[in-house]
Amino acid sequence: xxxxxxxxxxxxxxxxxxxxxxxxxxxxxxxxxxxxxxxxxxxxxxxxxxxxxxxxxxxxxxxxxxxxxxxxxxxxxxxxxxxxxxxxxxxxxxxxxxxxxxxxxxxxxxxxxxxxxxxxxxxxxxxxxxxxxxxxxxxxxxxxxxxxxxxxxxxxxxxxxxxxxxxxxxxxxxxxxxxxxxxxxxxxxxxxxxxxxxxxxxxxxx
Length: 206
What we know:
The structure is a single chain. The chain contains nine helices and five strands, in the order H-E-H-E-H-E-H-H-H-H-E-E-H-H. By secondary structure, the protein is α/β, with parallel strands linked by helices. A three-stranded parallel β-sheet has the order 1-2-3. A two-stranded antiparallel ribbon has the order 4-5. The longest helix has 17 residues, at 106-122. It is globular.
């Protein structure tokens, strides 16, 4: 299944929200919406013989520290190979947030998708990483959903919070620059949803 890439649907990095805006949007999600991921994915079937339109649009929802099964899902979607390396060519992968918490591999998931983002760029593709409520919870210092095993491995809750500090932490600084919403080929991707007052701001405003 393929879809043409539409440059007009891309969002400029200049419109990325600062952490304060991300925090407000995420807190609205936490206060008014269920904490599951709403993934919107639409694919258009193309003739199998058409080799001129190989770029596909793929979405992946909550990973929650389970890199093994995330790789299995991406392999089934022909985005990565048996070793988890990017083979999607010019395809676009949208990960709609909640890479972290619950499972024992939150940091591994963050590192893996950052690597995948780089590999995709080198191959002419894209990996779009959105914020979920669990990323924002960690940036706000809430480690209540972190796997006890991983928390201990990282050196305890205080060390964990340092890693996710939005202005000084290794992972917090990465997350603070991520989008909360993405528009691609007429489809809007977001984690869980957006309350009306934020939706009225438009994608650029968020």
